Amino acid sequence: MNTRQYFTSRYGLWITTLFFALAFYGFGAGMMDSFAMYPTWRMVGADEFAAFHQVAGSRIQLVFVLPLLVMTIFLVLLFWHRPVAIPRRLLWIALICTIIPWISSAFIQIPIQAKLDEGKDDVLLDRLFITDWIRLIPFFIQITMVFIMLYISLKSIHNKTAHTA
Fold this sequence. Notes:
Layout: H1 12-40, H2 46-77, H3 88-116, H4 122-131, H5 133-164
Helix pairs in contact: 1-2, 1-5, 2-3, 3-4, 3-5
């Protein structure tokens, strides 16, 4: 298969594939963090909370934050190395929906998390859970854009191969 007819560059296949994989991974990890991990923090005792939170936070950086950072880089690269069929407006929507959680994390969630490293605080936990929606809603929109981009890409490849067969 000549990938050049389907992608805007010779690197498009790999960049697109890695972006899709990291986007799905990041979405799944984010949902686990928000809906499975965060609610269990209320069950951790006040004496154990700070140590628990620090360990959990250090691990989340490696398994969640780092892959999302790499996914963001691949998303930006898609502006130059994407499937021909994907319109740039979908990339812009996905990028905006990626930037909003980064900004929210930097200015809202991380400061709350830093205070929670010092000890359990139910008011801060409530604020963390509520403000997490600032990240979750864009995550849902972003993964919708990813599904649309994947669908458009596969449909385009299918249509081109069906017409040449």
